[in-house]
Design brief:
five-stranded antiparallel β-sheet; mainly beta; about 550 residues; Neuraminidase
């Protein structure tokens, strides 16, 4: 272990011992009040002094969603938040998250909140009109995503209903529009509504065109029964009043090829990029699954698209709890996070990847392109401690070009009954040197909802303005099984950070990973194969179990 890594671990231990008391970490609200003061044997959670709890007790009534035996409902558990900022007023933010996660897919609904003071406080709590518990037409909802410009806010989510009872299975991508900045929402509009026994629409996102907000793009992957998953898009030319029919903008082809994690970003010159992960059988060995991150681009507002431009191969091996290696963490191991530098159009991608540990565990890596996605840098590491698992990165670039990456890691050793987990925000101005700030820590991931692995979300929220990043994240509440997780927001002024730490700038990270071996690639293949199988298994599971009485 390097001296820098050893110092980082000593500092983390001191922070655990001192800061939770000084900052009054607490366990958060949203439950029934029981367990809010964990017993002395459970260490308190650390939250930074500027952290603000966003989520509240569930707005959904008991029994609003009938459940079949074997499905576990995590009431008051919030996961997978997304965050949008108004480019015309950076104090205006809209947040969304999954509310009341279920063990076998989705949640009872999606909840939104609004801030008009840059994330210092939150109000305007509402429910997305997607799921039955929120008055919608589908049993469950998932994957909240937002875009915001002025008073126009658009949220999207997936929604689905099972095939039991009298109702047929449906898989939909839904959108709702707000004209008052996210305080109230229109009725749901189906961007796609498919036979759920044939198609599963997944991992959608929405982007209001920053160059011309009349244009709005929603994109997702549509998984077919033969394991094929093209990238599908709809667009609006009237700020979300109406939408085009779905069109395929990239088809990876038959034979088990699929996209996931499609996200559209707009460059300063108006070029549109759709970033995604592609999974499929290895060309040289069909029995192995391989992955890559890639991008397609459009110069005509999404009418036509380029061939895919490769970013890098995906070498994720997944994450397990360090102290309990048989306990899986369901993280963002197959999803990239993407951003565009608003000054010069440099494209950035970050993702989980094991290349810097030789396939032992995932770290956080980043690549960039300065020629519109045609060529990309070699991946470089972001997280400071490459000796421990790091997972679920979220990326943003400030107007001054500062890069921010939020992620979780297990740099604190755990026990069989407690796995301390930390959330970090790493920032860089030169892509080589990184400063890390601990936003939250010492929370036990083992208390998180179990949804094919311990789950706080495939992604978190991160945006910013000026020299300030705003993070929206989920952490657990130690010892409180009635309120396992909450959503928090936090702000970090990088100009203050730079001044405070100028004398202790960390050295550049290594740029060369160790030699890549066949055994390391086999671990990657097993992980990606397991994820593809899990997607198919969950699809079949909700077909059979969701909405057991067929009431919706």
């Amino acid at each position: 272990m390097s001296p820098a890594h050893r110092f980082s671990r000593i500092l983390s231990a001191l922070l655990v011992a001192v800061l939770p008391v000084a900052c009054g970490g607490g366990s958060g609200g949203g439950g029934n009040g029981a367990g809010n003061n964990p017993p002395p044997s459970i260490p308190p959670v650390f939250s930074s002094p500027t952290a603000v709890r966003v989520s509240q007790p569930t707005p959904f009534s008991n029994g609003c969603l009938p459940l079949q035996a074997g499905t576990r409902l995590y009431t008051n558990a919030e996961v997978e938040p997304h965050l949008a900022i108004d480019p015309s007023n950076p104090n205006h933010l809209v947040a969304a998250w999954q509310q009341d996660r279920l063990s076998d897919g989705g949640a009872r609904g999606l909840v939104t909140a609004v801030s008009v003071d840059g994330g210092a406080s939150w109000t305007g709590f509402g429910v997305a009109p997607f799921s039955g518990c929120a008055g919608g037409a589908f049993a469950r909802a998932s994957d909240p995503w937002l875009s915001l410009n002025g008073n126009t806010a658009i949220q999207v989510g997936i929604a689905f209903t099972g095939n039991t009872g009298t109702a047929g299975a449906r898989s939909a991508v839904l959108a709702s529009r707000s004209v008052d900045g996210g305080f109230t929402w229109s009725a749901a509009v189906a961007l796609a509504d498919d036979d759920g026994s044939l198609y599963f629409n997944d991992k959608e996102s929405v982007t209001i065109d920053s160059a011309d907000p009349r244009f709005v793009y929603a994109v997702w992957d549509r998984l077919e029964g033969n394991d094929r998953g093209p990238a599908v898009m709809v667009r609006s030319t009237d700020a979300g009043f109406s939408w085009s029919p779905p069109t395929i903008i990239y088809d990876p082809g038959p034979g088990g090829h699929q996209t996931i994690g499609n996200v559209i970003a707009v460059a300063p010159d108006g070029t549109i990029f759709d970033f995604f992960t592609e999974l499929g059988p290895s060309p040289g060995n069909p029995g192995q699954t391989v992955g890559r991150l890639a991008v397609v681009r459009s110069t005509d507002k999404g009418v036509t698209w380029s061939a895919p431009l490769p970013i890098a191969d995906l070498r994720s091996v997944g994450t397990t709890v360090s102290s309990l290696p048989r306990v899986a963490v369901r993280a963002g191991e197959i999803l990239g996070s993407f951003a565009v530098d608003p000054r010069n159009g440099t494209l950035y991608a970050v993702w989980q990847d094991s290349r810097f540990s030789g396939g032992a565990h995932d770290s956080i890596v980043m690549a960039w392109s300065q020629d519109g996605g045609s060529t990309w840098s070699a991946p470089v590491p972001v997280n400071s401690d490459l000796d421990v698992p790091a997972f679920t990165p979220t990326l943003s670039v400030l107007p001054d070009g500062t890069i921010g990456v939020a992620y979780y890691d297990f740099r604190q050793p755990g026990t069989s009954t407690f796995q301390p987990t930390d959330l970090w925000l790493a920032t860089s101005r030169d892509r080589a040197t990184w400063r890390e700030t601990r936003l939250a820590g010492n929370f036990d991931l083992r208390i998180a909802p179990d949804a094919s692995g311990l789950f706080v979300g495939d992604y978190q929220g991160l945006t910013g303005f000026g020299s300030t990043f705003i993070a929206l994240y989920v952490r657990t509440n130690n010892g409180d099984v009635t309120n396992r997780t909450d959503v928090f927001s936090d702000r970090l002024d990088t100009s203050t950070l730079a001044a405070a730490r100028a004398a202790s700038l960390p050295s550049a990270r290594p740029l060369r990973p160790p030699a890549w071996t066949a055994s390391a690639q086999a671990r990657v293949s097993r992980n990606l194969s397991d994820i593809r199988a899990m997607r198919q298994r969950e699809w079949q599971q909700w077909l059979d179990t969701i909405d057991p009485d067929g009431s919706r």
